[in-house]
Amino acid sequence: MIQRLAESMSEAVKIPTISHADPTKEDREVFSEFLTFLENRYPTMYAKLEIKRFGDSVLYTWRGKEEEGELFLAHYDVVPHEGQEWTTDPFGGAIEGGFVHGRGTLDDKGNCILLHEAIESLLNEGFVPQKTVYLAIGADEEVGGRRGAVEMAKHLKENGAIIHTILDEGGAVTVDAMEGGEKPFALVGLAEKGSTNFLLSLRGQGGHSSMPPPSTVIGKMATLIQKIEANPPMPRLTPTVRAMFETMAPFMGTRGKLLARIKQLFPVISKALVKSPTTNSFVRTTFSVTMIDGGNAPNVLPAKVQAVVNARILQGDSVEGIMTYLRKHLGDEVEIEVTLHEEPSKTTPHQTKEFAVLKEAIEHTFGDVVVVPYLMSGGSDARHYQVLSEHIYRFSPVVMTKEDIASIHSADEKISLENLEKGFVFFKDYLKQRSMR
Ligand SMILES: [Zn+2]
């Protein structure tokens, strides 16, 4: 089996399905090629399941005896590799040293392929699901999911699909990502922060630079940017993040003793948490100034300067609230426009029997790990499906090191054969468990 999984993964990597916000800049042929590859590689699925295309995204329906369904998500588009220092061919799909190498192996062709493998395998064994199983594969997740996930969610909603739970990519089994962790932590995303862009614009007089005012609009914008960086919103403890730290605490050594009392000690503990970018992102809305544009000649006063602030909005805050916050700190002279509007997601409850089923499946495959509720600071397609179910889990069944995490959207992404095997076993087991309940 492992040989087949490695080959499937390798073949999938070789097709460079790089998505772009502007669909006309995408290579339509590679997307078709990928879909043809799936059709040839998974003949039983293509013979027995209902298949509906949404552009290059695909929704599979495996009808069970019941109408109620379980939804699985993955995506096969990938981010570009330009400007990154790869030591292997990002689209070579080499199977070497116990790994399949290349772009997408962790994000998210791995899940895409393993879900296909699991379903194909169950079909070939003659498995008949009690409930209906849906598999939605996005082709534009990396650029927002508007053509894929948004349309597929709309279709399901309009057709009255009853979805019990949803599983998408997200957290993973991490071995060394949390400092001081004494056991592997299986991070299950229960919520994701909202990613919103604010475009700041300042206008000036323009003119010749030989007789300048004391400050140009570029200088003024620099002052505003300093204000943004000096005034991050107050740290706050959300229920998900509290559950995360409290679940990890017993396995965190002496630090754990403090974390176990995070609710009472938050004013003190938060001072340490905000010092690391990772833990900082768990406890507040963050701002990053990601783009700046202004001026077009060395001897001309700029007439206009613009900057983009990407805000990752924590549960409990809102786009409107953050706009007010920016306005208060930056004054009235600057124009502020929302160019991407995404509120934080809803939060999946975790003291439920639905969560327990997932926890059991993770422990069954990965052994002695601690299953931890988790807040994702990155986005996934899952948020587009939140009208369909309140039980949305964001978890990829792979063991990841810090190095693996760093390779996502970066150089030398790869997946181990052991991970492919574990992921396959997990999806088969979990899909069976879910569809029988
Ligand atoms: Zn992804």
Please name the defining characteristics of this protein.
single chain; 437 residues; alpha/beta; Aminopeptidase; Alpha-Beta Plaits; 2 domains; eight-stranded mixed beta sheet; four-stranded antiparallel beta sheet; 37% helix; globular; binds zinc ion
Describe this structure in words.
The protein is α/β, with parallel strands linked by helices and 437 residues long. It folds into 2 domains: 2-191 and 346-436, Zn peptidases (Aminopeptidase), CATH 3.40.630; 193-340, Alpha-Beta Plaits (2-Layer Sandwich). It has helices spanning 2-14, 28-41, 43-48, 109-124, 149-158, 217-230, 239-248, 253-259, 262-273, 277-283, 319-330, 353-366, 402-407, 417-436, and strands spanning 50-54, 57-62, 69-75, 95-96, 99-101, 132-138, 163-174, 185-192, 194-203, 286-294, 304-313, 335-340, 370-376, 391-400, 414-416. The strands form 3 sheets. Strands 1, 2, 3, 6, 7, 8, 13 and 14 form an 8-stranded mixed β-sheet that branches. The longest helix has 20 residues, at 417-436. The protein is globular. The protein starts with a helix and ends with a helix.
